[in-house]
Amino acid sequence: MRVIKRYRNRRLYDTQIKKVITRDEVKKYVLEGIELQIIENSNGRDITISVLSGIIGNSSLDIKKSGAKIMGAILKKGGVETMDIFKKLTLASIGAVNMTKEKLDEVFEEMVKKGEMTTDEKAEAIKHFVDRSTEVRTKIKDYAEEMAGKVAERVSSKVNDQIAQLAVKLEELNGKLTDLEKKINK
Q1: Is the dihedral of CA 181, 184, 185, 186 positive or negative?
Q2: What is the dihedral of CA 65, 69, 71, 75, to 10 degrees?
Q3: Spatial separation of the C-alpha atoms in residues 143 and 135, rounded to whole Å
Q4: H-helix or E-strand containing 39?
Q5: More exposed terminus of the chain, fewer Cβ within 10 Å: N or C?
């Protein structure tokens, strides 16, 4: 596991290569499948989840390219409870679209008052915005559900594999214990 320390000045220091790295380099590590632990240098607190959450990406293209891997790394680090963070983020983005509609209505009303737009044009502009935001909201929701499903599938698959491996090891240990008991009882 690669340990990265974050210092007070928000710089990230890779302890393995002994140099300061950028958030893009952290993202590259995740995309390459390198397991990370990011700790706050001042108090030793594990901040991996919050740092990775901050680098998922700002554009939809960036999210499509790297979002699943980064979300997978976050879930691997934080467990299934972390999925709530993504649900809340999705709901917050939908709420932001709704709040923006109210602000947009105010702006259009001001334009009508100034004579820059007619009431019919305002109604058409708002209808267009609402239609477009509904379309975007649906895409965001569908994409978030798809990503959550993929990540949950990966996590549960790994957990099931680990459980199977532990069951095999447990059987081996049980066999060895039985053999030892037989030797002791002789």
Answers
A1: positive
A2: 170
A3: 12
A4: strand 36-40
A5: C
In this predicted structure, the answer to whether residue 107 has a pLDDT above a threshold of 80 is no
Q: Is 156 exposed, middle or buried (0-12, 13-18, 19+ CB in 10 A)?
A: exposed
Give the burial string for 118-142 (b: 16+ CB within 10 Å, else e): eeeebeebeeebeeebeeeeeebee
Q: Domain ranges in the chain? A: 1-78, 80-186
Distance CA 43, CA 36 (A): 18
**pLDDT value at 60 more than 50:** no
Overall average pLDDT of the 74-78 stretch: 64
> 2-6, 115-119, 154-158: which has the minimum mean pLDDT?
154-158
Is the pLDDT assigned to residue 127 strictly greater than 90? no
pTM for the complete prediction? 0.42
